[in-house]
Amino acid sequence: VTVEDAIKKADTVADLAKLAQHQGRKKYCTEINFFTSEMYKEINTERKYLAYLEDAIKNDEFVVYLQPKYDIHSERITGAEALLRWNYKHEKLLSPSEFISLFESNNVIGKVDQVVLKKVCILLSEMKKKNMPLYPVSVNLSRRRMENRHLKEQILATVDFYEIPHNLIEFELTETAAYSDRDSMLQLLSDLRDLGFLISMDDFGTGYSSLSLLKDMPMDTLKIDKCFIDSILTSAENSRECILLKEIIWLSKMLGFCCIAEGAEQKEQVDFLRRCGCDKVQGYYYSKPVPMAEFIQKVIDEQERLQKECC
Length: 311
Ligand code: C2E
Ligand code: MG
Ligand code: MG
Hints:
Blueprint: H1 3-22, H2 37-58, E1 62-71, E2 77-88, E3 92-94, H3 100-105, H4 109-129, E4 137-141, H5 151-161, E5 169-173, H6 182-194, E6 198-204, H7 210-216, E7 221-224, H8 226-234, H9 240-254, E8 258-262, H10 267-275, E9 280-282, E10 290-291, H11 292-310
Parallel strand pairs: 2-4, 4-5, 5-6, 6-7, 7-8, 8-9
Antiparallel strand pairs: 1-2, 1-9, 1-10, 2-3
Helix pairs in contact: 1-2, 4-5, 8-9, 8-10
């Protein structure tokens, strides 16, 4: 091992320690860690991604896929969620699990989230020009972005520049990350809602203090996490999981929220959710996330089908 190599490794170990200590990432957070070559590789990949981020934005490598949301009764499209993919150096498509938490913990998630919002606005404005039916599109809002005091102004500047009605943009707040300032987060959500944007709580039932947030969070929609939807297939109807799922749907309706189930893959799940009073479904049963052009085609196909049914 050369001196340079040793210094490089020591730097990496220091980075690793910092990651474990500051970034709330549980993965390497035990008292004693054994440094493996796999960890070394991972840290180097992460550094590479971070250093390349600005260029990736300039090179337009971030691609937005849309996953339609369906009304559970009419089985028609009622909206969509924007989900990010990274066409890394135009060589391979990276999924969000490979970079979102890295960007969140390094406080650069706002840069990509802003790209997503802009692309969604461009799509909606194109659909508007073509006189197509318009549905609300949701974008994910990482809690870490709430620390940005100019967030509301940034969002408004983008949405208003493209003249998109605010009620066509929905923000999905994920609850996997602990928040440092609950009051300012609730204030920001309330401001966004007052401006006409829609707010939903993502991945409900996992993560932090979901029930206590239900009490205070200004919101329109509750998205039930996929793990509850999975239990329809794996557990009996009187199991704890299924009882919880039914009660979450009931609670959501009683609180006046729209209720959407994430990750339904089979008819049996959709039928169960419908019986329980769930309003909407987003899952592979209806559609996987698809490129924007494919989403537009789905909307056109649905319109044509409905027109034929009318005649
Ligand atoms: P999410 O916001 O909860 O998005 C739902 C995830 O579930 C998506 O994964 C979607 O592809 C997947 N999914 C939906 N239906 C099904 C199904 O029937 N079966 C299965 N197996 N999976 C299904 P994806 O696209 O990999 O995104 C993962 C997470 O990454 C998202 O979870 C969200 O938290 C985050 N993410 C994605 N795009 C963005 C973004 O633009 N900004 C931020 N901040 N986070 C994002
Ligand atoms: Mg989401
Ligand atoms: Mg979710």
